[in-house]
Write a structure and sequence with these properties.
447 residues, alpha+beta, Beta-Lactamase, Helix Hairpins, 5-stranded antiparallel sheet, 5-stranded mixed sheet, rod-shaped, manganese, nucleotide-binding, cell membrane
């Protein structure tokens, strides 16, 4: 916008300069020409008294020589012949004879364009009853004297005005644009998680109103997030009562694999609820970096948890790439929640007996987790990936993939769904090993 204002100012100033400078330049040229011709008129008038007194050649020659133009051989005189006197022709004539004859016959002054300048023809009556013609030559240099200098002055003034307008427009533009730049920067920082950012309410009325609206929006976002954290904490706290009852009931199940599995599930659920409460109460900065975890260890732990259910449903399970440590910049609880969401979808949306596999692929800049199944597959992967729009039928909230997506995007990675080699669905989560800079523009999908 700043450069646009400067360009508009330059265009307007240039048009104004041209509108005034061109006519002024033409007027200066005409004034110089009129000045030269007026001076020639005075030179011709200086010879007229001598013509009124005498037509003697010698006397007229002396009169012509006394004039300034005559001394420079720029005055010529012609007196037509009469019945009682011979013709008189003095000086060098530059005007055509036809022009001299017309001036003598009609008695009208004229200015004739001749090589090197102009010839001023002034008819004057003499005592013999005829009309003499005084010719004064005006060189081109006299006609254009001072014109070039005046044009240079006008050009310099025009350039100065244009440069001055550019400087003024730049200063005014910077004062106008600065609040907009601050507003854009604050919006970017707010999007990156800096909830404390606010914009000074300064500048033009429109930008001041935008700053007021932005600050009000930021305050509302902070309040909404605080309310959301409190609601999550309250809801999670309410779950403790039924969880306590479940934990007490599991004590009466006795011993056995099913009882141990149930007690482990209840214990894990209690840990997850406690984690939610702590996370909701915690005031984290936007630049906090997760401690990270071993993805292979999480995969092994969660597969051990789900393998009992897989055995009950006669599912063939395969795990690959989880036999060595694989570090990822994701909290252990978050990665476990994402993996549980993907494995839970396998059990929920595929028939009993359908095989599934979990693969861990380690690269230099990323770690990829693949959960594949031999189920019917996903009819519309794009719809399933739309945030909050997934729908898996009864008992599904449609938010499982959102949990997985948030874990991937927290590292700068992504989530994808495609057809697996087992014939069903393949969910691919890519975890970048280098966290995105909090100052870099976000590249996450915002569907």
């Amino acid at each position: 916008m700043r450069w646009a204002l400067i360009r508009v100012s330059l265009a307007v100033t240039a048009m104004v300069v041209l509108a005034f400078a061109v006519p002024l330049g033409l007027v200066v040229r005409e004034l110089a020409r009129d000045r030269a011709l007026t001076n020639a008129e005075r030179q011709a008038a200086a010879v007229a008294p001598a013509l009124a007194i005498t037509t003697d050649r010698a006397e007229l020659a002396r009169a012509v020589a006394t004039a300034q133009a005559g001394g420079e051989n720029r005055i010529a005189l012609r007196i037509p012949a009469t019945a009682h006197a011979a013709a008189v022709d003095l000086g060098r004539h530059r005007a055509p004879r036809a022009a001299l004859d017309r001036a003598s016959a009609h008695g009208q002054a004229a200015t004739v364009r001749v090589p090197g300048g102009y010839a001023l023809l002034r008819p004057t009556a003499v005592g013999s009853g005829t009309i003499a013609v005084v010719e004064v030559f005006v060189p081109e240099a006299d006609v254009t004297r001072g014109v070039a200098t005046a044009w240079l002055v006008l050009a310099a003034v025009g350039v100065g005005l244009i440069a001055g307008s550019a400087v003024v427009a730049d200063r005014l533009g910077s004062r106008t644009i600065r609040p907009a730049v601050r507003l854009a920067g604050a919006a970017r920082r707010l999007g990156e998680g800096d909830l404390a950012v606010r914009v000074p309410e300064a500048g033009p009325d429109e930008l001041r109103a935008a700053a007021v609206a932005f600050n009000a929006m930021a305050d509302q976002v902070v309040q909404l997030l605080a309310n959301e954290r409190e609601l999550a904490a309250d809801l999670s706290h309410r779950l403790r009562t039924p969880l306590t009852v479940l934990r007490l009931n599991t004590a009466s199940l006795g011993d056995g694999p099913a009882a141990d599995h149930t007690r482990a599930a209840v214990a894990q659920l209690e840990r997850e609820v406690d984690q939610i409460i702590r996370a909701a109460r915690e005031q984290r900065s936007g630049t906090a970096v997760p401690a990270g975890c071993d993805a292979a260890e999480v995969v092994r732990e969660r597969m051990a948890f789900w393998s009992a259910l897989a055995e009950d449903e006669n599912r063939v399970v395969r795990t690959a790439g989880a036999d060595r440590p694989v570090r990822v910049p994701v909290a252990r609880a978050d990665l476990a929640a994402a993996l549980d969401a993907m494995l839970g979808n396998v059990f929920r949306h595929t028939p009993e007996g359908a095989a599934f596999a979990v693969d861990v692929h380690e690269f230099e800049d990323a770690v990829i987790l693949l959960v594949s199944d031999a189920g019917p597959g996903v009819a519309d992967p794009a719809a399933a990936l739309r945030r909050g729009h997934g729908h898996g039928g009864p008992g599904s909230t449609g938010l499982g993939l959102d949990i997985v997506r948030r874990v991937a995007e927290s590292t700068g990675g992504d989530l994808a769904i495609s057809r697996s080699v087992l014939g069903g669905t393949e969910v691919r989560i890519r975890l970048a090993r280098t966290l995105p800079s909090p100052l870099a523009p976000s590249t996450h999908r915002r569907t």
